[in-house]
Request: fold
Amino acid sequence: MTLQKRSSKGLQFQSSYTWSKSMDETNGQSGADDSASSPYGTDLARRTVDRGLSMYSTPQNWRFNAIYRLPELASSGGWAAKVLNGWWMSGILSLQSGYPFSASLGSNRSNSGVNGGAAGIDRPNLVLGRNNGNITSGTSTGCLGVPVGTPLGTPILYYDPCAFTLQPAGFLGNAGRDILLGPGLANLDFSLVKDTTLRFLGESGKLEVRTEVFNILNRPNFAEPSPTVFAGTGTATVPPALATAGLITSTVASSRQIQFALKLLF
Reply:
């Protein structure tokens, strides 16, 4: 859905909203093709086992941009007009849902031998009644290594490892592929610009002074957390969660950046 306002009285803007869902079985054949989960299916003979959200599936995506030219405060001509007139501002707001990712094991517990039995392919069992809504928000139900009431959705513990258990050795876990959604993105860029007419450079001559601020609110936008819940090599069905399970160690956008620019048009 798109809403557009053409320039009038100095204001113009455009708003675009997308609601979507994309599903597949795997996203590619290499790690570069799918960074959110394994590019390999857990059972090559039953591809439906891995049917789930695509790694690039974004349920909600909104972009809004606007330009506003401030009214002239002084009559044309003279130094007052050169200082007070020609100001305008613009901004771009970006809001979107997080990308899907899979909870995984650090070993080939199913003994499937997929990709030589590499880690990160098998998924654990999902505890009855748990879903993305109560795995990544609220507080943890508590288990070995995670105290009861630990806040979820934070960089320290984004999802609840206690929502998963180990399946018996030799079996696939029942947790679906890409059932969790990572952190969303929110970003606001802002520009303040001053145009000064310079007639000696010709009819269109002017000096443009720009101040641009990227991520003006300095909001951290976090990457997906570590997806590996258990090592998966023990016999206990509820082993201690790995210390890195649910831990976020990087961001996907820069902190606040400010730049200044001069542009001469003639």
